[in-house]
Design goal:
This protein is of the alpha+beta class. It has a single domain, classed as Gcn5-related N-acetyltransferase (GNAT) (Aminopeptidase, 3-Layer(aba) Sandwich). The protein is 32% helix and 25% strand. The protein contains four helices and five strands; from the N terminus they run E-E-H-E-H-E-H-H-E.
Length: 96
């Protein structure tokens, strides 16, 4: 499962989850790719995400670490950015 929050031309990738029995089989990559395609088709030009421990996975998919101050205002105002994820979560972004 993977979620997407739309905020104008920005998207916030939310909650990528793959059952432990299916990890390592490319399911996470397929879910992210499908989300990226749908986001781009909907006019989203950048995806942002916060992660505690999956930064290496997302880096392999083309996401780059970003400074929290660089996040667009729309992303900074989300509940995930402002209070759900800890301050030490890694912020990442990808242009579509």
């Amino acid at each position: 499962m993977v979620g997407l929050e739309r905020h104008g031309k920005y998207g916030l990738l939310r909650s990528l989850v793959v059952a432990s029995s299916h990890r390592g089989a490319g399911v996470g990559r397929q879910l992210v790719t499908a989300l990226e395609l749908r986001a781009a088709a909907a006019g989203i030009s950048e995806l942002w995400l916060l992660t505690i421990d999956a930064d290496a996975f997302f880096a392999r998919l083309g996401y780059a670490v970003a400074d929290r101050a660089a996040a667009p205002q729309a992303i900074r105002e989300t509940a995930e950015f402002s209070n759900l994820c800890p301050d030490d979560a890694v912020l990442m972004r990808k242009e579509l």
